[in-house]
Write a sequence for this structure.
């Protein structure tokens, strides 16, 4: 024991690594050295002394940091009146454009990553947009896409054989090698039952705003780019022989399966 130097040591302080024989000596060494007995999670450990326990401790430390940062972000966003007013204003502007924009609670992935804004000077939206290319298992996120931009122009940097980035072009070569007439742009109908998922086909020659009118958008639009010549399990509304074409307004309102999954993850 490094405190009394009489008894055999039984304990070692996680903080200062001093040996002690009893609770009394532990309290004495804490008082003498102003030691709190809590292990210093950021203390340097050489590679030779690094063990699996140290690795596990570091992993848990990083988890604690992540939880603390996430809790702080949620607390600030939840109690920030400005954020609530901006969201309300965003929904109201979307409603005036005949777009049913819905926002998720604080903490959801789509809520955190959404960067959609409305420019009051220009009187138009700048959308956070996700492009999904199922045939190549590729996804791309676009920020500040003006609502008056034509869908075909939005896709040019990705599937146009001349204007697309060489790296992107190589990854999406199935699309770049296909004629533009084979490209279809689909968007999931959000207010459908989970066992009846359908998609709306968008018009590539029209603007993003025109295509979003009359639609339900949860946080931001996600566009699926598919090819007619390749098999796809995405059923476009009205193309299924078992059901007639209908408006999505008549369906019962519910979150999409992705949002339901996020609710389960969050809980």
């Amino acid at each position: 024991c490094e405190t009394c130097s009489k008894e055999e040591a039984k304990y070692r302080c996680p903080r200062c690594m001093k040996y002690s024989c009893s609770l009394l000596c532990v309290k004495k060494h804490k008082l003498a050295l102003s030691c709190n007995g809590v292990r210093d999670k950021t203390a340097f450990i050489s590679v030779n002394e690094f063990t699996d326990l140290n690795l596990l401790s570091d992993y848990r430390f990083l988890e604690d940091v992540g939880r603390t940062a996430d809790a702080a972000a949620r607390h600030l966003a939840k109690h920030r009146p400005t954020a609530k007013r901006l969201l309300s204003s965003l929904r109201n502007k979307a409603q005036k454009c005949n777009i049913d924009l819905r926002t998720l609670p604080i903490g959801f992935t789509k809520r955190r990553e959404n960067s959609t804004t409305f420019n009051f000077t220009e009187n138009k939206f700048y959308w956070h947009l996700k492009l999904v290319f199922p045939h190549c298992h590729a996804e791309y996120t676009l920020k500040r896409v003006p609502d008056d931009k034509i869908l075909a122009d939005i896709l040019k940097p990705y599937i146009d054989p001349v204007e697309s980035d060489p790296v992107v072009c190589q990854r999406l070569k199935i699309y770049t090698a296909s004629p533009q007439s084979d490209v279809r742009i689909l968007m999931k109908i959000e207010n459908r039952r989970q066992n009846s998922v359908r998609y709306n086909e968008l018009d590539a020659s029209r603007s993003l705003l025109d295509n979003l009118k009359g639609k339900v958008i949860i946080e931001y639009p996600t566009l699926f780019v598919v090819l007619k010549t390749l098999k796809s399990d995405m059923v476009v509304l009205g193309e299924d022989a078992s059901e007639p074409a209908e408006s999505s307004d008549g369906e019962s309102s519910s979150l999409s399966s992705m949002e339901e999954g996020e609710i389960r993850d969050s809980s």
